[in-house]
Amino acid sequence: MLTDTHAHLASKQFINDLPAIIARAREAGLTRIICVGTTMEDARRVIEIAETYPEVEATIGVHPCDADSVKDESFIDELRSLAEHPKVVGIGEIGLDYYHQPPEGFTLEAWKAHQAFVLNAQLGLAAELKLNVVLHNRESFDDLTAQVLPWSGKLRGVFHCFTGTAEQALPLIQQGHLVSFTGIVTFKNGQIIQDCAKAMPDDGFMLETDCPYLAPMPHRGQRNEPAYVAKTAAFVANLRGVSLEALAARTSETAHMFFRRLKTQD
Ligand SMILES: [Zn+2]
């Protein structure tokens, strides 16, 4: 039992060999893959992939780097109807990204405001649909937490590809949110993240690939794929002094509780 909680299976990089990638994931012991969308176009594609493979489920949402693809709140109605699909188990990835330059036609200030608007509209939809959210942060941690934490209790967020400290993660977990670690935790220069992964409560974190990006050691620099979450799991199990089986089962259970439709669980 092992779960990849963040895979961009709709990426162009997987277009030619997705069946083989799913087969390798099964061989590596994966029982669940969360396929994450980044645009409205992507949303249709991730749902299609989830319909094709029984172990794949989808999250849909507009990524902050693609926030310029929506102009006003009308995309929310479209997102709402797509989210009715039974294999949609979350809204994401959504968030804030201050690392990449604003697209043409936006000042930095206007771009940040537009990202905040797109994020907030999607947080509102997630709360309405009782779905949890997958959060992207890049050089925007303070603004992101300021925007997300007021929703605590109404929804839960996973701060995906977490690269912060335990001191930053623990207050989020105390409010019901999660962090998730990619292959970065296995890198030689990953000391801060390793310390953080060691300090997390058993049910406070999940594991992911963020494939096709961020392959763990010994695949660093290559195209990443869901099967490699096993490498990250083995590394984190060793860090925490637990068996791979125990860690895989616990993080999969955490993912199972997080990625689901709360209204059908009542
Ligand atoms: Zn991602």
Structure characterization notes:
The protein has 266 residues and is of the alpha/beta class. The chain has one domain (3-265): Metal-dependent hydrolases (TIM Barrel, Alpha-Beta Barrel), CATH 3.20.20. It is built from ten helices and eight strands. It has helices at 18-27, 40-52, 75-82, 108-129, 141-148, 166-174, 191-199, 229-240, 244-258, 262-265, and strands at 3-7, 32-36, 56-60, 88-97, 133-138, 157-159, 178-181, 205-207. The chain has an eight-stranded parallel beta sheet with strand order 1-2-3-4-5-6-7-8. β7, α7 (191-199) and β8 (205-207) form a beta-alpha-beta unit. It starts with a strand and ends with a helix. The model has no long low-confidence stretch (mean pLDDT 95). The site of zinc ion (ZN) has 5 residues, from loops.
